[in-house]
Amino acid sequence: MPHIALITLVVRDYDEAIDFYTRALGFELAEDTDRGDGSRWVVVRPPGTTGGAASLLLARAKDDAQLASVGAQTGGRVGFFLHTEDFAGDHARMLAAGVRFLEEPRHEVYGSVAVFQDLYGNRWDLLQPAWVRPGCAGRSARLALRRGGPGRGNRFRTRKSPAS
Fold it and tell me: By CB neighbour count within 10 A (0-12 exposed, 13-18 middle, 19+ buried), where does 52 fall?
């Protein structure tokens, strides 16, 4: 089944981006391959990410137009959503690592959330969905996601039209 494997994030410098994502966010460096033309194939991902989940491809800006998009790739909107099973712990760890949060944590009906910026200014949500309890890892969390969370039914199911 086709799936999104990589999302490109244009960066100023490979090494500063690797440092931020691995040190401050706790991501793992999945690949860093010299392509022989001065560019590199650099992939980072949250720890424990499997091959079926999207990872970030860090791509160094090659010209002024690409450089101008660094930090503004989603027009100032939150463009990335980092799910967690331990909101309070990850929030505290990220603060200690120097991550800049733009707001205090909020507890909404859909979960606990706080907006933060990466080293370039891209906006991210740190989000613990309401249906994910601490320690609700792996298969049970994936099943809850497919079901739309507890008590919500499958929000992604195709509904038949009244005419069918």
Answer: exposed
Low-confidence ranges of the chain (pLDDT < 50): 137-164
**Nearest-CA neighbor of 82 among 12, 157, 147, 9?**
9
* Token pair recorded at residue 151: 């008590």
DSSP-H helix ranges across the chain: 14-19, 64-69, 87-96, 139-146
The amino acid at residue 84 is: T
Q: pTM here? A: 0.79
Contact indicator for 87, 66 with CB cutoff of 8 Å: no
Distance CA 118, CA 122 (A): 5
Could you give the CA distance from residue 161 to residue 164 in angstroms, rounded to a whole number? 6
Q: What is the pLDDT of residue 163?
A: 47
Predicted confidence at residue 75, as pLDDT, reads 94
CA dist., res. 92 & res. 108, Å (int): 19
Q: Which helix (H) or strand (E) holds 13?
A: none
Q: Give the Cα separation of 163 and 78 in Å (integer).
A: 39
Dig out the tokens for 81 from the structure: 């959503």
Residue 72 burial (C-beta neighbours within 10 Å; 0-12, 13-18, 19+): middle
